[in-house]
Amino acid sequence: MKKKRRKRKSAWAVFFRPMKVIFSIFLILMILGLGAGGIVYLKFGDEISACKERADQIVAQSKREDFSQPSDTRIYDSSGQVIGIINTGHYEYVPITEISENLQNAYIAQEDKRFYKHHGVDFIGLARAGVALVKNKGEITQGGSTITQQVIKNTYLTQEKSFIRKITEIFAAPQMEEKYSKADILEFYCNTNFYANRCYGVAKASLYYFNKEAKDLTVWEAATLAGISNNPSRYNPVAHPEAALEKRNKIIDNMQKNGMLTEAECEEAKAQPLTVAKVTEEGTKETYQSSYAVHCAAQELMKNDGFEFEYTFADETAYNDYKERYQEAYQEKSDLIRNGGFEIHTSLDSTLQTQLQAGIDETLAKFTDVSDNGKYALQGAAVCIDNRTGYVVAISGGRGTDDEYNRGFLSRRQPGSTIKPLIDYAPAFETGYYYPSRIVNDHLFDKGPKNSGNKYYGEVSVREALNRSLNTVAWQVLADIGVDYGTSYLDKMHFVGLSYLDNWNTSMSIGGFTEGARVLDMARGYSVLANGGMYSNNTCITGIDSQYEGDLYQENQPEERIFTEDTAYMVTDVLKGTLNQPYGTGYGLGLSIPAAGKTGTTNSSKDTWFCGYTKYYTTAVWVGYDTPKAMPGVYGKTYAGKIWYDFMKQCNEGLPAEDWVMPSTVAYYNVDSRGEKTSLETGKQDLFSSVAEQNARSNSKKWDEEQKMKEENARAAAEQASRDAAAQGQEQAAAGLTALIGELNGLTYRDEATQEMISQGQSMLDLLAGTEQYDALKQQFDEAADRAEALPYEEQSIPPSQEIGPGITHEARPGEAPSSTEDVTSGQAPVVQPGAAPGGFEAVGPGGQ
């Protein structure tokens, strides 16, 4: 067939085909909105020439092996040693003779109706796409790429929608069809497509979804696969069955319209339910190192595609929208990496990894209970960052190495008091209104948290409060500076466990997150303190090489200023006391070189933490159960602290005892009994920052305005509560007075209780003064009272009283039925405390250990 086709070529055809290519370039320029064709061609002539050269090179160097499964993804540690090989284990290349004709037809009907008529580029399709673009005011509703172009894109080019890529495709496609037959190209297409759920190639997809070979696919099964590969994230039948079904049926309709099916065959295929088998085979197991490396690499590829990461959300809608977009993009990139063809170079240090893993395994070795899933019940996780580079150098996701679930970056747990330096004290130091010596009253207060052991110390400095891990002080500090202000710093440090429900949640001051924090995030947060307030965007990735696209890693990872150098230094100085002061919750965990750290323990010790750092390394450690379970008598210092101490002692061994250098804008000053600066010799000094003090002066007006607004809001709330209580009291008084009037009008004589009833009625009437009901009820009451007072007087014995209205009792007479009390509420209006937490919320604790 090839020879016969070539014989029909005329000299005119040889001349005209390049002209068609040039015409298509002008059309693409129009589609991409780049302006008038001729002007743009002059402007981009060099780029177009480069596209032609690139296309020539692609076709000249292409070989059949290019269209088979990519090589395994390999992961390397910092020394270049392979630490992971990712191989999904299912790939099989199948020739076109073993691919169902139904699938071939489905692809042609869906992607390229003129596949057997064009020579690589469908100029009619391009023109149609251009017209649709104009009709839809710039919205792309039709694609112009042929199957041949898609094969070139999938194998040799990037997925980016760009002018350069499109022009390269157009130049290469006709040459590709000169080199390979239509059957070859369709074979390449089916074997290089991605079908979601780690299914690369039609053989693997047929097995996973339908438990059969590609040659045996029915019409509806073939249409399903064609739909998936069109957009794997959107038409994945496992994740989005309804969308996949709709896409499948649309393709079946297209097959019928193109004469590939009869109407009866079309309806029969669409009537089939979309069911999938999900047949899996064992691939290569991932380690803690390799799973984290793939995670970071996937996010790097997302960045390359322009994905914008978010960390705080205004409401549930914003959160759910972002979560859906993130999951779709992340799944696509992680599947792409796991399907092979990448070399991922990392900063992970295998020596430190071994030491960190051994520390967790040995410290928790005596806990041998196993969960139903076969894993150790008590677990631990840790992350270590090299402060000099900002890169993660070790990560352990649990006990042993057989567990593929990496708690180091996947699990979100309540961080307890380890969050205090990051959300409470460092942000507070930034304002200038708080500093290490400032005095705060440690006391139990309504709707607030409790301290560990229910101990309260009265007036204490911020320094002592943080070293003792006093919950009430941390709560007051965050409430004072504002929850939104404190969480804004977690946002800047890219904490991923922030919920929209936490936007005004004061319990975050002591670790009461709705979702929790990752060990990775805690390590990165403490590394900011260790690095003078600077946040590093480095992860563990130092290079990503694609088999087809070359180097994909953008090494440009600028640091970001989170806290001032002054704040970082003062918080670090305070946290040294956690390890060195006798009352510090981590006392005894000090190293032979300067170090700082913080313990964390949640309610009933369900989560225990230790986060700390030296000039060289930052390490965060978590110990707890996968399903939160109380650990009586266990605190952050107990096991998490021991793991931290043993590991940090090893990794800092032999390094100079380097301390943090005090910034020129920080100095020691004498402090008085109130913790304030004084010129007097008091025998006590502490740190103050001139930068922070300037911030306080600059923001004093704003601060005063905010405080005034808070006071006005509190006053308004109290006034509203008073009005609400008064309104409720008047409503109850009106109901009670109406009931009493009825009682008075029903009397046949008066006795000692009659005058008491009249007095109670007058009291209730007084409460109604100024209301719309007052005049009518006053007239009714006066008439009833006058009538009662005119009745003859009789002595009666008084039986037990019966309540007939709000605060009113009536003595039942012999033979008289009790009055109904249904739907009558208490006469005591509820007292509303301005600023009280709804629902009588009591904060989590103890976070103090």
Automatic annotation (TrEMBL):
GO terms for molecular function: penicillin binding; peptidoglycan glycosyltransferase activity; serine-type D-Ala-D-Ala carboxypeptidase activity. One of its GO terms (biological process) is cell wall organization. GO terms for cellular component: outer membrane-bounded periplasmic space; plasma membrane. Keywords: Antibiotic resistance, Carboxypeptidase, Cell membrane, Cell shape, Cell wall biogenesis/degradation, Glycosyltransferase, Hydrolase, Membrane, Multifunctional enzyme, Peptidoglycan synthesis, Protease, Signal-anchor, Transferase, Transmembrane, Transmembrane helix. Pathway: Glycan biosynthesis; Cell wall biogenesis; peptidoglycan biosynthesis. The chain crosses the membrane at residues 21-42. It is a single-pass type II membrane protein. It catalyses: Preferential cleavage: (Ac)2-L-Lys-D-Ala-|-D-Ala. Also transpeptidation of peptidyl-alanyl moieties that are N-acyl substituents of D-alanine; [GlcNAc-(1->4)-Mur2Ac(oyl-L-Ala-gamma-D-Glu-L-Lys-D-Ala-D-Ala)](n)-di-trans,octa-cis-undecaprenyl diphosphate + beta-D-GlcNAc-(1->4)-Mur2Ac(oyl-L-Ala-gamma-D-Glu-L-Lys-D-Ala-D-Ala)-di-trans,octa-cis-undecaprenyl diphosphate = [GlcNAc-(1->4)-Mur2Ac(oyl-L-Ala-gamma-D-Glu-L-Lys-D-Ala-D-Ala)](n+1)-di-trans,octa-cis-undecaprenyl diphosphate + di-trans,octa-cis-undecaprenyl diphosphate + H(+). Residues 82-256 form the Glycosyl transferase family domain. Residues 380-649 form the Penicillin-binding protein transpeptidase domain. Residues 789-849 are annotated as: Disordered. It comes from the Bacteria. PANTHER family: BINDING PROTEIN TRANSPEPTIDASE, PUTATIVE-RELATED (PTHR32282), PENICILLIN-BINDING PROTEIN 1B (PTHR32282:SF11). This is Penicillin-binding protein 1A. It comes from Hungatella hathewayi.
